[in-house]
């Protein structure tokens, strides 16, 4: 897949999706995006700014959901305009797709809606690249069916059937806990779609803090290294200047001031692994 004049795939240079879980303000969004732009330039890596205009699946009714569709899209438009970064956001309803696709570069389907056929159909017809997140209740092989839905809808609409990413974000392991099986990256990669590993939501502990979710951000680097060593196409890391004050997913967000050294390490590992692919063909 070509995106912004760069090749995306399991054998191509690593790319990164990063940003706050939810859009909090224009000021914070620009602060994060400007830092991401600097990191992208320094390491010659594609970075896509991520921020949600609405978190429709919060644990509690009182939790902050975001600025809403109109204000959120304006923030994303300004981030793209002022930093030059491509932008990504998630959509929860087919009715949102048209207006969101007019602003962002990549649409994302939430993990909890991975099997919602009408939503998959709508995003696939949008003409945008789509990041299809695997449900935490699904086996990795099940994402082949989601991808088939998306590709069929894209073809029917005259769109590119190869404009889809598959995203691993952990699997439910009992209550309030997720685990990541790195084999899933290979299983989903067998579909031919580029695979993204979401480190932030893989360390989330859903609902573990009563009326909100907890998480263990200390494991983000560990899981990222494992995914990169497995030859993943891209990473998804939520980041915030002060995760303890983030309005959503703070416990599993990586501190913004620690992102650059982490990216440096991961880019180096990615270059080593992908430079060795020819010498280490997959064993079947």
Automatic annotation (TrEMBL):
Q: Name one GO biological process term.
A: keto-3-deoxy-D-manno-octulosonic acid biosynthetic process
Q: Where in the cell is it found?
A: Cytoplasm
Q: Which reaction does it catalyse?
A: D-arabinose 5-phosphate + phosphoenolpyruvate + H2O = 3-deoxy-alpha-D-manno-2-octulosonate-8-phosphate + phosphate
- Output the Gene Ontology cellular-component terms: cytoplasm
Instruction: Name the major location.
Output: cytoplasm
Q: Does the keyword tRNA processing apply?
A: no
Q: What class of enzyme is it?
A: transferase
Which SUPFAM superfamilies does the protein's record reference?
Aldolase
Q: Name one Pfam family in it.
A: DAHP_synth_1
Q: Keyword annotations for this protein?
A: Cytoplasm, Lipopolysaccharide biosynthesis, Transferase
Domain (DAHP synthetase I/KDSA) spans 7-256
Q: In which pathway does it act?
A: Bacterial outer membrane biogenesis; lipopolysaccharide biosynthesis; Carbohydrate biosynthesis; 3-deoxy-D-manno-octulosonate biosynthesis; 3-deoxy-D-manno-octulosonate from D-ribulose 5-phosphate: step 2/3
* Protein origin, superkingdom: Bacteria
Q: Does the keyword Translocase apply?
A: no
Supply the InterPro entries for this chain.
Aldolase_TIM, DAHP1/KDSA, KDO8P_synthase
Which positions, given as ranges, span the membrane? none
Instruction: State any single GO MF term.
Output: 3-deoxy-8-phosphooctulonate synthase activity
The UniProt record lists the EC number as 2.5.1.55
The entry's family comment says: Belongs to the KdsA family.
Name assigned to this protein = 2-dehydro-3-deoxyphosphooctonate aldolase
Query: What is the protein's species of origin?
Result: Hephaestia caeni
Q: Which lineage?
A: Bacteria, Pseudomonadati, Pseudomonadota, Alphaproteobacteria, Sphingomonadales
What gene is behind this protein? kdsA
């Amino acid at each position: 897949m070509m995106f912004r004049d760069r090749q995306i795939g399991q054998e191509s240079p690593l790319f990164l999706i990063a940003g706050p879980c939810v859009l909090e303000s224009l000021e914070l969004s620009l602060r994060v995006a400007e830092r991401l732009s600097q990191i992208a330039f320094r390491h010659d890596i594609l970075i896509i700014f991520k921020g949600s205009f609405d978190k429709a699946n919060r644990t509690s009714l009182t939790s902050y959901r975001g600025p809403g569709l109109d204000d959120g899209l304006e923030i994303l438009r300004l981030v793209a305009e002022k930093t030059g970064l491509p932008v990504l956001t998630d959509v929860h309803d087919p009715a949102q797709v048209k207006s969101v696709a007019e602003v962002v570069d990549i649409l994302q389907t939430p993990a909890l809606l991975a099997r919602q056929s009408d939503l998959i159909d709508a995003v696939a017809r949008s003409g945008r690249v789509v990041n299809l997140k695997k449900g935490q209740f699904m086996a990795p092989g099940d994402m082949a069916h989601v991808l088939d839905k998306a590709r069929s809808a894209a073809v029917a609409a005259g769109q590119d059937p190869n404009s889809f990413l598959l995203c691993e974000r952990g699997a439910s392991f009992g209550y309030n806990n997720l685990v990541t099986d790195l084999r899933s990256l290979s299983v989903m990669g067998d579909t031919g779609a580029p695979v993204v590993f979401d480190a932030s939501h893989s360390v989330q502990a859903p609902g573990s803090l009563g009326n909100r979710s907890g998480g263990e951000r200390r494991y983000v680097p560990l899981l990222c290294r494992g995914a990169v060593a497995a030859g993943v196409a891209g990473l998804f890391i939520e980041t915030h200047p002060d995760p303890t004050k983030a309005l959503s997913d703070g416990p599993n967000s990586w501190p913004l001031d620690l992102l650059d050294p982490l990216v440096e390490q991961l880019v180096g590992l990615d270059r080593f692994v992908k430079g060795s692919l020819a010498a280490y063909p997959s064993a079947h």
